[in-house]
């Protein structure tokens, strides 16, 4: 049983930053010129990150669930080999990162439509206080990464019998 807290836990708080049009530099260089940031959907903007050295890192889509016993994270990583996925915990953050190298054999082909993400990716999930990061379990099947972070006994709470 989860107990109510005075603070709000937001596993995706970094998505709340409206940094897309200015930080990504998409206001010029497109056919017709001018600011095109209004043409790029917000959900796309929230899934792309530019590093200080100009590299592009994409953020895979994720769902976070809370059960009585754990926090469960599902991350979509279709086409990414298991050995290209890294999972770390730093402080109160679960960090999932790696690289999708794309489909072999098309390196010299001209891309006409590209909707799938390739290249480096990183997803940071903020964890609530009271999870047991020493007992994290992860499995990867059919492009879906599942990370299960057990709750500590104190986070689970306990039922008090009335006499």
From TrEMBL:
Keywords of this entry: Stress response
Keyword Transmembrane: no
One Pfam assignment: HSP20
Domain SHSP residues, every copy: 53-163
Top-level lineage group: Eukaryota
InterPro entries: A-crystallin/Hsp20_dom (IPR002068), HSP20-like_chaperone (IPR008978), Small_HSP (IPR031107)
PROSITE patterns referenced in this protein's UniProt entry, alphabetically: SHSP
Entry similarity comment: Belongs to the small heat shock protein (HSP20) family.
Protein name in the entry: SHSP domain-containing protein
């Amino acid at each position: 049983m989860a107990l109510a807290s005075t603070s709000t836990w937001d596993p995706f708080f970094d998505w709340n930053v409206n940094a897309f049009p200015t930080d990504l530099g998409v206001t010029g260089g497109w056919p017709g010129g001018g600011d095109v940031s209004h043409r790029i959907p917000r959900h796309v903007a929230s899934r792309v990150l530019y590093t200080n050295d100009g590299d592009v890192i994409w953020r895979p889509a994720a769902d976070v669930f809370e059960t009585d016993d754990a926090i469960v994270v599902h991350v979509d990583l279709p086409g990414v080999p298991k050995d290209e996925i890294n999972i770390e915990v730093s402080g109160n953050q679960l960090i999932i990162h790696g690289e999708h190298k794309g489909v072999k054999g098309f390196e010299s082909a001209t891309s006409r439509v590209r909707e799938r993400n390739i290249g480096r990716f990183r997803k940071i999930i903020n964890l609530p206080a009271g999870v047991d990061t020493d007992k994290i379990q992860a499995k990867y099947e059919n492009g879906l990464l599942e990370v299960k972070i057990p709750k500590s006994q104190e986070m689970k709470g306990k039922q008090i019998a009335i006499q």
